[in-house]
């Protein structure tokens, strides 16, 4: 079931007052649900010593949410300098930050190495020579190429721009060791929104195999393997949720086998984003128009600047209308925003109850890669973000963008090159 029924119930009770106070559109996140999922993940891995989740900041880069993760003992996976900045701003430093960049620039390396640094996760063998200082600890992102299949969002590994290829991996660690690196990790991220837990088990097995191979050749050990993010959530009502318990059981088994063979084990790291916050966010928007042409359209006051996934990935997000029940009499409609792009639709030919202007639509599962992916094309501004606290208070955690924000880059020192 998308968006937990507990969250739906708690939100429904107070939704009209929230709308009155803050105005639509807004994303609203559920502190209780997020904490429960964090705890569930930690508990599922309690049999693996040193397990640690590095929340993928890009999924929901809001300091109020990140502080919840920090309280739960999580680190942060960052792939840009602003994401590192955000993590440091809330007080996470050093090895609580994993920097998984790709096509990394020198200024990015500089920023990442400052302030006691972070865990550098190198995307390519050529980047070793571009390091400013030689760090104590280095991780490489591994790309297995044809050895594995990818999935729809990320694509096949052999076509993906990420990671060090299989044939380069030994060389990569050899070079790092030669330069004086003492501690090692390995990382991969092959799937996105993957609902088959076995895929993640295979990824773990694959990394443990590479670790054995590299250790045998180079006489080093690994501090951790990082199996990436990519755990899926059920966006449609009939999708089965990800089987976390089966995954962890099988992964624990793989670690046991590794330990028996090698008398040591690396720690296990993960960097989930979607799984942690995805189901605990909703986009709330009001009906402002109805249009009957070749299709029936329900126009709302949010647009794809608030949620790109349906337009970008043809992704399904469940929608319910506050206070209205689903019935057999529901008619098919397209739910649309105001952008001059025909992909600006939250739902296409979706059966929904009849609506009138002013009705409130709740678009489910926008807690990850929702607000964060928003953009300003066509002068559309991004909405505010709210947090439903455990004590039922509702807090503004990001204001809506204004016209001044939109035009701020038009205020600058004049500069002209004349010939
Ligand atoms: C996007 C991303 C993640 C998080 O992916 P989810 O599907 O949200 O779990 C983790 N690691 C890397 C390197 C990423 O690019």
Helices and strands in order:
Blueprint: H1 5-22, E1 26-30, H2 31-44, E2 52-56, H3 63-71, E3 75-78, H4 81-89, E4 94-100, H5 106-113, E5 118-122, E6 137-143, E7 164-165, H6 166-178, E8 183-187, H7 197-218, E9 224-226, H8 244-262, E10 267-270, H9 274-277, E11 281-292, E12 296-300, H10 309-313, E13 319-321, E14 331-336, E15 345-352, E16 360-363, E17 384-388, E18 394-398, H11 403-407
Parallel strand pairs: 1-17, 2-3, 2-10, 3-4, 4-5, 5-6, 6-7, 6-8, 8-9, 9-10, 12-14
Antiparallel strand pairs: 1-11, 11-12, 11-16, 13-16, 14-15, 17-18
The site of pyridoxal-5'-phosphate (PLP) has 19 residues, from helix 9.
Walkthrough of the structure:
With about 425 residues, this protein is an alpha/beta fold. The chain folds into two domains: about 30-275, Alanine racemase (TIM Barrel), CATH 3.20.20; about 280-400, Beta Barrel (Lyase, Ornithine Decarboxylase, Chain A, domain 1), CATH 2.40.37.10. Helix content is about 30%, strand content about 25%. It is built from eleven helices and 18 strands. The strands form two sheets. Strands 1, 11, 12, 13, 14, 15, 16, 17 and 18 form a nine-stranded mixed sheet that branches. Helix 6 crosses helix 7 (about 195-220) and helix 7 (about 195-220) packs parallel to helix 8 (about 245-260). It is globular. The model has no long low-confidence stretch (mean pLDDT about 95). Bound molecules: pyridoxal-5'-phosphate. Pyridoxal-5'-phosphate binds near residues 59, 231, 275 and 368.
């Amino acid at each position: 079931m998308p968006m937990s029924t507990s969250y739906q119930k708690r939100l429904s009770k107070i939704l009209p007052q929230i709308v009155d106070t803050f105005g639509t559109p807004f994303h609203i996140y559920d502190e209780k649900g997020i904490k429960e999922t964090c705890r569930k993940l930690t508990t599922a891995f309690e049999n693996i010593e040193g397990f640690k989740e590095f929340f993928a900041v890009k999924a929901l880069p809001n300091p109020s949410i990140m502080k919840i993760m920090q309280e739960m003992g999580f680190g942060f996976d960052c792939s840009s300098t602003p994401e590192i900045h955000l993590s440091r701003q809330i007080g996470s430093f050093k090895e609580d930050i994993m920097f998984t960049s790709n096509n990394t620039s020198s200024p990015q390396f500089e920023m990442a190495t400052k302030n006691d640094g972070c865990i550098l996760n190198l995307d390519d063998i050529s980047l070793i020579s571009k390091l400013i200082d030689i760090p104590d600890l280095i991780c490489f992102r591994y790309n297995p190429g044809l050895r594995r299949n990818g999935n729809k969002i990320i694509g096949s590994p052999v076509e993906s721009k990420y990671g060090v290829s299989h044939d380069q991996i030994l060389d990569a660690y050899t070079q790092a060791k030669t330069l004086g690196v003492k501690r090692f990790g390995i990382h991969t991220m092959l799937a996105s929104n993957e609902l088959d837990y076995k895929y993640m088990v295979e990824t773990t097995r694959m990394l443990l195999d590479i670790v054995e191979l590299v250790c045998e050749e180079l006489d080093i050990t690994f501090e951790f393997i990082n199996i990436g993010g990519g755990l899926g959530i059920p966006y449609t009502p009939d999708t089965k949720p990800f089987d976390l318990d089966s995954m962890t059981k099988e992964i624990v088994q793989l670690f046991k086998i590794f330990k028996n063979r090698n008398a040591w084990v690396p720690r296990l790291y993960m960097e989930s984003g979607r799984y942690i916050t995805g189901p605990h966010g909703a986009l709330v928007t009001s009906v402002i128009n109805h249009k009957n042409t070749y299709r029936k359209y329900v126009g709302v006051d949010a647009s794809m600047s608030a949620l790109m996934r349906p337009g970008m990935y043809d992704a399904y997000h469940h929608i319910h209308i506050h206070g209205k029940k689903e019935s057999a009499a529901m008619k098919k409609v397209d739910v649309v925003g105001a952008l001059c792009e025909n992909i600006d639709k939250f739902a296409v030919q979706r059966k929904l109850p009849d609506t009138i202007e002013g009705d409130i639509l709740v678009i489910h599962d926008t807690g990850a890669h929702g607000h964060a992916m928003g953009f300003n094309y066509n002068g559309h501004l991004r909405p505010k973000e709210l947090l439903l606290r455990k004590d039922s208070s509702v807090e503004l955690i990001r204001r809506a963008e204004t016209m001044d924000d939109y035009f701020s880059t038009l205020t600058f020192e004049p500069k002209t090159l004349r010939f």
